[in-house]
Each structure stands twice: as C-alpha cells, then as structure tokens.
Amino acid sequence: MEFQSYNRGHLDGVLSICALEGWKSYVTDHERTHRVLTAPGVTTVVAIENGEICGFAQVQSDGEIQAHLSVLAVKEDYRRQGIGQKLIARGFQKAGGTRIDLITDDSQEFYQSMAHSAKFGFRLYPDAEQIGGRVL
After folding, report:
1. Distance CA 59, CA 34 (A)
2. More reliable by pLDDT, 68 or 27
3. CATH number of the domain encompassing residue 67
4. Rounded-to-integer distance, Cα 109 and Cα 97, Å
C-alpha cells in the first residue's frame, strides 16, 4: 500500500470512490472537486494499491492547532485493513495541528476505536432556508 499527496492524476480514482459512496456534490462537477481537494489549507492524501486508488482523506487545518477531517472514504473491498486510520494519520501529519475534529453519520465504531474524546456538535448551513430549525 502506498500513500501519496493528492494530485490531478488521482482525480478519476477519487471520483469513482465518491460515486460509490453516493456523494453527488463531488461527482457533479469534476473541476470543483479538484479545487476542493487542493484548496488553501487543505491536505488530501490517497491510498494506492496496484495502481488503484482505494481510499482518500481530506484534512483542513490552520497548521498549528485546529484540524478537521472533512472526508474519509475507503473502497469496501479494502476496509478493515487499517487504511482509513493510516489515511487520517498521514493527512494529519501533513496538515499539522494538535487535534483533529470530525463529524460522522454512520462510522461511530470506527472513530471510537481510536484515541478520542467525544463531543456534541452541529453542522450549520448559514444561508439555508429553515422551518422549525430544520434545513429544507
């Protein structure tokens, strides 16, 4: 398994993983996704096995204290091999900071298996229309 910093040559492999995950916001506009993965303050790392991108992680950081794991995805056939943890570690190492925060909808057990401190949080949509506190 090889881990590399993301570059444009990895885009198709990353997009195929996003498509498998059903992440329409990533697969709709390929150039936008490339800009997201290379934006200032963003570190994106890919995992490659036999020339195939089998996972990637995107970390945003101020390089000093705060880091945020924005995206982590590993193809189903490659899960439970430590790839996700290695992607997080390499992304965090490259991005810098003293801690990494994240939100998850369905991977609590995975993140609980690592040294952590659970915090209550929210995902805000500042310009979204709302009724009764719920985003439409």
Report:
1. 14
2. 27
3. 3.40.630.30
4. 24
Q: How far apart are CA 30 and CA 26, in angstroms?
A: 7
16-47 exposure pattern, b = at least 16 Cβ within 10 A, e = fewer: ebbeeeeeeebbeeeeebbebbbeeebbbbbb
Domain that holds residue 124: 2-135
pTM of structure: 0.80
* Tens digits of residue pLDDT in 8-28: 999 999 999 999 999 999 999
pLDDT higher than 80, residue 135: no
Half-sphere exposure of 134 (CA within 13 A, CB side): 3
Total domains in the fold of the chain: 1
Confidence of residue 97 (pLDDT cuts 50, 70, 90): confident
Element of type H or E holding 56? strand 52-61
